[in-house]
Each structure stands twice: as C-alpha cells, then as structure tokens.
Input
Amino acid sequence: MADDAGMRVMAEPLKAYCTKVFQRLDVPAEDARMVADNLVSADERGISSHGVARLRRYVKGLQGGVMLARPEVRIVHETPATALIDGGDGLGQPVSRRAMELAIEKAGKVGAGFVTVRNSNHYGIAGYYAMMALKHDMIGFSMTNAAVLVVPTFGRDAMLGTNPISVAAPAGEERPFVLDMATSTVPRGKLEVYDRMEKPLPLGWATDEKGEPTIDGTQVLDNFAKLAGGGLLPLGGAGELLGGHKGYGLALMVDILSGVLPGAGYANNIYLKDKDGRAQPANVGHFFGALRVDGFRPVDEFKATMDDLIRRLTATSKAVDRERIYIHGEKEYEIADDRRRNGVILHHKVVADLKAMAEEFGVGFDL
Amino acid sequence: MADDAGMRVMAEPLKAYCTKVFQRLDVPAEDARMVADNLVSADERGISSHGVARLRRYVKGLQGGVMLARPEVRIVHETPATALIDGGDGLGQPVSRRAMELAIEKAGKVGAGFVTVRNSNHYGIAGYYAMMALKHDMIGFSMTNAAVLVVPTFGRDAMLGTNPISVAAPAGEERPFVLDMATSTVPRGKLEVYDRMEKPLPLGWATDEKGEPTIDGTQVLDNFAKLAGGGLLPLGGAGELLGGHKGYGLALMVDILSGVLPGAGYANNIYLKDKDGRAQPANVGHFFGALRVDGFRPVDEFKATMDDLIRRLTATSKAVDRERIYIHGEKEYEIADDRRRNGVILHHKVVADLKAMAEEFGVGFDL
Output
C-alpha cells in the first residue's frame, strides 16, 4: 500500500522519544509513557492514523492550553460496579488507562465494572483499552465519542463522530477476538488516501453538502474545511436500504454511553470554539467496561469454546477467489508480529515532523 | 405496505388468546402470559415478523418436544454483578424476562448487572428486554444468537445468525432511545417480502451459493431450503469496501456474548438436528445487561441531556427530499400509539392460522 511506504523505526526508541517530547511539555513521566505506549501500539498494529502521526496534534493541544499536562483527575462518583471519572482536560490516554484499570478492578471484585470519563481528549485506538481486560481473563469494552464528522440518516450536516466500538474477548490457543471499529463506513483518513490517489469514492462512504451520496472525496474534504455540510456516512451508507440507520444507531449509542452518561460533550456539542474561533477544551467522553468470564462460566471452558468458534469460522468454505476468512484482530496481531521484529513503518512526512519536533524540544532523534 | 394489509385485532384479547393456547400446551399461566405479551408487543411496535405470526412455530416446538413447557430453570452461577441462567430448553421469553429482571436487580444493588442464558429458544424482539430497564432509570442491553443465516466476510456458507443488538436509554420529555437491530443488513423476512413482490434484491443484502453478492432473492431462499450455501450479508454488505467486516464483527461479538459466554450454542453449532433430521433443543443463548444511570451521573441531568441530544439531531438540516430525522425507537413508539388505540394489524394468513389453532386447541377466537 502506498500508505505504508516509509521508514522502519523500532518501537522502543520511538516510545522513548515520544515520552521525552511529552515530558518537555510538562507531562509527568508516567503519563508521558502511557501516551507514548498507546501511540506506538497503534503503529505496531498497523493503525498508522492513530499512531505517532498524531503526536503533533497532541503537542499543539498542550501548547495551546486546551489539553492540560497536569490535569486534576478525580473520581466524581462510584458504586461497586460503576464509576465516573473527570479527566480535567488532560490527555486522553492516561485517564483512559486508569479508567479501564478501575473497571477491571471492579470486575475483579463484583463481576462487572463500567467506568465513564468526561472532560477528556482523543484517547487513541479504542482497542488498546478493551485489550487490557484480556490478561485478566475478562471481556473488555471501550468506546469514545469524537469530533463531528458523520451525518445522521436523512440528515445534511455531520452531527456525530466516527464513535468507535471495541470489544475484546480472550481465547485459548487461538488469538483473542478484538473488534475495533468506527461506526462510520470508513474513517476520514480513508477519504484523504483516496484524495491523494485521485480515486473516486465508492458510493456509501460520504455525502455532499446537500446530504446526497457522492463519489467526490475532494469536495467532501473541502466541505469539512469550510463547514459547508455533508460528511461521512454511518456504516450501512445513505438512507435505510442497506442499513445506514443501523450504523447511525450504533454511533448514537456510543454518544449516549460515552458522551451523555458521563456528562461529557455529545453530538455537535463537542470540540467547541469560542467567538474568536479559538479551540476550547474538547470535552471528549469515554466508556469502558470489563466482565469477568468466570462471573458466568469457568475460564478454561470459555476459552476452549472460543477456540472452537474461531476454528469453525476460519475453516468454513471461502467465497469465490477468496482464500481466507479473518477473525477480528487477527490482521493486526500478524502486523504487530512483523512490526515488533522489524520496526513500525512511518510515512516520510511523519518522520520529518518527528525530526522537527526533536529539534524544537531539544530531544534526541536517534531511531 | 402490502405487508401491513390485514385485519385489525385489539391487543388484549389477542394476548388472552395466545395465553390460552400456551396453557393448553401445558405452559404455566405466568409463563404463557409472558410469551403472549412479548409476541403481541412486537405486533404493537409494527415488528410483525416477531409477533403472533410466530405462534405456530412455538406451538410446533412445544408439540415436538424440543421446547419444554415446564423447564427446569436454574441459576448456575452468580456474582454480585453477573449471573448465568440455564433455561432448561423452555420457551425463550419467560427465562429472558427473569434474566433481565435479575440484571436490573443486580444493577440496583451494585450499579451494573449482566446475566447470560443458555439452553433457551427464540426470545422474540430483543428490544422488549432492553426496554425493561427504562422504568428503573437504567440503560438496558439485550442480545441473542439465532439460527444460522449470515455469511461471514469472504465466506461462502452461513455461519452466524442475524444476532440482534438492542440498547435502550431513558430520556426526559422526549421518548427513550431504543436501538433494536439485526447485525445483518436485513432479516430473512425482508427477502421473503421481495420474493412475493418479485422484486430484485439490492446488492448488499445476500450472497449466492458461491459467496457472491446476488439480486436473486428466490435463489437465496431456495438455497436456504436446500442448505446449498450462501445467505444474508452482514451490515455493510459483501467484502470490506463498505464495511461488511464490521457487521460480521458485530454478529460475532453477539455470538461470543450470548453464545460462548453462557455456554450455549454458537456459530453453526446451534439448532442442530439428529441423524434422522429431527430437530434437537436449539440451545439458543442470550445476553442481558442493565446499568444504573445514577451509578454515573444524576438521573435528571442525564435525562435533560438526552432530551437535548435528541432535539439537536431531529432539528438538524435534512437531506434533499427528506423531511425528518428519526431517533431509534421513535417509529415504533408512533406505530404502537396507533396499534394500542386501533388494534394491531395481522396478515390474513396469520389470522387464518390463529383460527386454525383456536379450533385445534379448543380455545375461543373472538377478537
């Protein structure tokens, strides 16, 4: 893929570099390591849109004061199985990791733990947190709302984010099931890839400013920049014929669980700007959950059944010209196997930007 | 709609009729009322595929002995926030209602409650159980696996059910959010409707026996009957271009939570037949959950925010030639308002079958 063209960089020194950049911006060492680990993990899993390519945006957020390096994070309310955490406008990753740890701790005690977060920011890949449950023999859940890009069914303007859902479940000898999906048909980055290749979009990815399906990705991106209307389509595409109302419903569910339930931003009431066009704290919200497998069934039985389920699916007959049926997370595990041995792949523009930041913050860039 | 053509019947006498039929088949009165209420509720909400049109299948299941009228239902295991219930091969509705009640009871005590069920049967509309949480100011979850109809991405044979997801969240002055969606693009019933109208299917609904997308619904239904391969497509359609792997992932998630987690059937290991082609107990599995809103945030604040979210979405600009943006559950609430006043609408074939069963079981049919 053209998108994968770039330089190989080993993960550990890349994490160390990112950690140092965050520390120069006054982020405490532990928090800095958490964000770095999350970003590089995305690159390891081949999700480069959520990897260190995002570092500049986080740096800008910290520099502009809309993300705080040392937020006041507090548990606002809790019960044995639930909690609400206020992220204090800090980076999304450290509070999300602590929220998922709290969900796991609660599940350890009473069987289930669900923790929501408000006043947070972009938290990276959703799957990172759901996967934290796996080593505890729990099923993990992670959702977040996000900047407004997705048009509701029969609407003209974007009103929801790409609001991802991640669910991770352990298996035995097979790899875990790790679903990590935006509830839009595609993320915005996919339009940018097609735009660079000057390819028309498939119908079902996006709408124009009148709310009509379009193949003109350049126009859609231009409309985003001008706030002219239109946007990405929910999973299932435009209208109801192919189930677009279902993708819209999933995006709305995520907004309710991760935006409304913690009292964070929601719908187009997120990532607001003041009268002079200056960014305000994003007030992104998250939803995390953990269920103990042995709150229902012995772990070894569950894992043996997961193995059988996975084998049944991957062994079944393939469609014409297809050689393989995948389980969710499988592709990413295979990519990560390669990246951990041979390094993550960074686009040359990303490498140039990392070097620029290395100079800007006086940290070494010896990758 | 041609499908709505039929006779108006008031809900209460229809429930009483169904209750009597089940009682004649030795189902205890309370259980019989639960199943009747669930079926007629589906008709009230306009989901006639899951209404009393299904009564005959339940009757056959009870007569054939694969569904037991008086099952031994027991809690196999529980923690403060979780439980596993064995449905003892009884009707799906009574055990599901009790499982959701247990989830709500647990959420009342510790903030969250999640209950799975094994050795069950078809449970009717998923939303019925999720909506039980609403009056307790909780968010409700309901999922079930089902008979194998859906082809995994890049596969040739159906390996998963239409595995629905329902999530219900209360609002204040506005109606609740009630998502209730099959994870396939459409249910099988939709193919039957197109078949009767002799209309070609939209691409993205189904595949032929080679795993290729098809517009020939008659062939797909024929293939189902002959077990010749092919089937319904997951939400997002064939392949990955429009996100079919996401719909497949959601269907698989439902199978893990409602099939694997309780130790019920899963994938094509459900609704099995013996060597002589006789149906065995279906071993359908379900997953129910409840989260107390005030486990996170005061209920009045949550409801006020839900109202604002709903109003923002419904008030936003409409696409060309569209007059309305819907919230999930809204259409069904409006239909139910009419049906409760004027009666549910039963297809004349369904009415004829109800009359036949009235005669068969010697119960009055005075609707």
In short: The radius of gyration of chain A is 20 Å. Chain A has eleven helices and eleven strands. Chain A has three domains: 1-64+329-367, 71-185+233-300, 186-226. Chain A has a mean pLDDT of 96.
